[in-house]
Design a protein that fits this description.
By secondary structure, this protein is mostly helical. Helix content is 42%, strand content 0%. The longest helix has 24 residues. The radius of gyration is 23 Å and the shape is rod-shaped.
């Protein structure tokens, strides 16, 4: 998605105006992915490690 951010053609701030929707889409997608990752780590905690038994007899 970052690859879709193009360099504006112009030297003033108004050249950035067409990139505002693309940049906002990128920011909202990043926030959504962070929220999803956080919720999934709460919902599916790390599995406990198996008990290792010594094989000495």
């Amino acid at each position: 998605m970052v690859l879709e951010l193009k360099v504006p053609h112009g030297n003033d701030v108004t050249a950035l105006r067409p990139l505002i929707p693309v940049f906002l889409n990128y920011v909202l997608s990043f926030i959504y992915m962070c929220y999803t990752l956080r919720e999934n780590t709460k919902r599916f905690p790390v599995a406990p490690r198996p008990i290792r038994r010594s094989s000495s007899k």
